[in-house]
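From: lab user (bench 3)
To: helpdesk
Subject: output format question, protein + 1,3-dihydroxyacetonephosphate

Hello, I'm new to running complex predictions and I'm not sure whether the block I got back is the full result or only part of it. Here's what I submitted:
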Amino acid sequence: MRKKIVAGNWKMNTLPAEGATLAHEIVSRITEVPSDVQLILAPPFTHLDRVAEAIKDSSAALSAQNCADRDKGAFTGEVSAAMIAAAGCTYVILGHSERREYYHETSATLNSKMALALANGLRPIYCVGEKLEEREAGRHFDVVGAQIREVLFNLTPEQMASVVVAYEPVWAIGTGKTATAEQAQEIHAFIRKTLAEKYGWLSEEISILYGGSCKPANARELFAQKDIDGGLIGGAALKADDFIAIARSF
Ligand code: 13P
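Helpdesk reply: Thanks, we reran it on our side. This is the complete output you should expect:
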């Protein structure tokens, strides 16, 4: 059985006190969420300690939104995988399209980040997804296939077993435009098939999340698809009501 996951990527939103309040609100309602759904909260780095404290007696897990591509040392402004793990994270989001686009993260950078995250016991949530022009040109399978092969194909099966994949079409992020359940299922099935080329049966065990304008109104239809194992939620993760409603949508 694949793990069902609903992860909230808070991006660069909330101040630490607001983040702690949001985390408290979410865990106070966690009993409304089916017990087989793993909730993950990914606040900004500056809130990790406070959110870790807020969720410590719950089943929710903590994630960072990024980590450095170097181990330690003179890399001003960076935060290492070891620091994130020490702050209480069990997950780290890697390769989000905003990182690829605005901070020029390449597969080479992401290979380093992935190796460091795994070496520090973190479970990477590895994001893939095509831009609008790539979908319109019918290149979405090529783009997503390359993002999988260039990074995930470098892992051992043991490492791959701890990875979560998130498919987030760039044209659906923060735009209010969601992929249809059919479009999302089609590419999730493609991702699983691509993983199977390298990892065989293990691909059936990997959770693949959908992200991009996922909200209470569309989560149920998306999560009902065979290869969609949950969601990576942006805007709707900033409201406890919406986040809990999404997590109840399986
Ligand atoms: P939205 O849910 O705001 O579209 O963001 C999705 C996302 O990028 C999550 O990582």
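A quick orientation on your result: The CA atoms of residues 99 and 151 lie 15 Å apart. Let us know if anything else is unclear.
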